[in-house]
Structure to design on (115 residues):
């Protein structure tokens, strides 16, 4: 069973930055991809960014140029650097790790962007 532990959420003012971390309980190269989804109140969960085993990254249009996904292979950790945050980025952010069609999820971390 895969365990994912997220950290780094919090309250930040518009224009600020946060970095989310997702530590996996096994070698991240076991996964076809890892990444982040988010869900705001009353909205569907949406993909924010992901990175596949080959290192190819993918971003939602709404975060391109502001967010960067990366990984530390030795620490089995994936990061989401979020810059120029907007109130619309407020959501619970969930890390996932996919093996074929099986998704493993972290418990989520809250990001609130507000003045």
């Amino acid at each position: 069973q895969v365990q994912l532990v997220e950290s780094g959420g919090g309250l930040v003012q518009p224009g600020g930055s946060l970095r989310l971390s997702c530590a996996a309980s096994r070698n991240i190269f076991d996964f076809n991809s890892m990444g982040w989804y988010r869900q705001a109140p009353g909205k569907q969960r949406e993909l924010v960014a992901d990175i596949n085993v080959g290192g190819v990254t993918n971003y939602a249009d709404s975060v391109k140029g502001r967010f960067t996904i990366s990984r530390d292979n030795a620490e089995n950790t994936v990061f989401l650097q979020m810059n120029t945050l907007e109130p619309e980025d407020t959501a619970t952010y969930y890390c996932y790790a996919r093996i074929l069609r099986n998704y493993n999820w972290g418990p989520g971390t809250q990001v609130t962007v507000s003045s």
About this structure: The mean pLDDT is 97. The CA atoms of residues 61 and 84 lie 15 Å apart. The first strand starts at residue 4 and ends at 7. The two ends are 40 Å apart (CA to CA).
